[in-house]
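Thread: Newbie trying to understand structure tokens

Hi all, I'm a second-year student working on a class project, and my supervisor (Dr. K.) asked me to get a predicted structure for one chain before our next meeting. I've only ever worked with sequences, so writing a 3D structure as a token string is new to me. If someone could post the tokens and maybe explain what I'm looking at, I'd be very grateful. Here's the chain:
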Amino acid sequence: MTETLPPLAASERTVEPTTYDCILLAGFGGPEGQDDVIPYLRNVTRGRGIPDERLEEVSHHYRHFGGISPINQQNRDLKAALEGEIAARGLDLPVYWGNRFWAPYFSDALKELHADGHRKVLVLVTTAFSSYSGCRAYREDLAEALAQAGLEGELELDKVRQYFDHPGFVEPNVEAVRAGLRELAAQGKGGEVHVMFATHSIPTSAASVSGPRESLPDGTPVEVGGENEWYAGGGWYAEQQRAVAALVMDRIADEFPGVPHSLVYQSRSGDPRVPWLEPDINDAIEALPESVSGLVVSPLGFVSDHMEVIWDLDNEAQETCDERGLTMVRVPTVGVDPAFVSGLIDLVEERHVAPGGTARDRVALTALGPWQDVCPTDCCLGRAAKPTVASQ
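---
Reply by user tm_fold:
Sure, no problem. This is what the structure looks like when written as tokens:
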């Protein structure tokens, strides 16, 4: 059965392009040494009352890699790649970088760019999909950072739209999955194979309020039946990822027709009594038919191979596959793929126009987008409404 989703209000919530002074690359942040691990985890869990003893118990994946998360270096690499693309296009837009949970913090980046004379800032967030943690939390933390830096009224911060179905994000994922299936075929695993698109699990309560309220999927799956029962629910967060996963598989059907796929979740945390999006990738691997001999895992929900990718997929999911004798190929995230980097600057040029110039056309590859430039005040609400940037 196929259900028709209601009209998407997000595509109508756009703003007029203007001229910006600079770009702020907004990241999550991560520790860069053993002494950083517990302070970093305190930042991430602030307000939840979690003692250091418990934080130490969950720090093992950072400890395993010397206390260093790869995410900061990945953002340095992305910043350099963005600067190269900007220079190639002749744009006068310096790039600054700030994080939510580790140095360089948002407040430090805002002080730096303000001291350099910039006042209108376009923010690039390193998440592609709509959710509290992937969009609104960044906007809340940016508003708080403005206050901490004493720069309220001094800086104007606008945010580039979520880019889950922009060609710059989709096409590298298409080519990665295609390459993963080719690798399985080269290993003699081209018969019964499966593709899993992995994303971060979030509480179902947060998933259900992801995206704009005027137009909701209301937990109704696009398709129901058989394997696609896993796709039900999840608000716009899951709906966006279902749409992109289906698009990726459609793009590779010329070479790999009929390969089944599923959306799975990873990295859940917190109180086990609280429902989160399922299935967990390890449970999903164990539930695969015995006839499946090869598995491609695509970290669709992430933009770089950071700790949750290399630990949860390259270690835990790999171990689950090994236990059942299943060949697994984990394909890369978009990272600093030239198409992704170019696509991010395309998104910038939707919003930024040099004097006398024109804005780039807004592009989307699914019926869900282009996504909104600004968010309604009740979009992706957390536990309590807080001041944000880029809202209306």
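A couple of things are worth pointing out once you decode it. The CA atoms of residues 78 and 336 lie 6 Å apart. Strands lie at 22-27, 95-99, 120-125, 156-159, 193-200, 261-266, 294-298, 327-330. Feel free to ask follow-ups in this thread.
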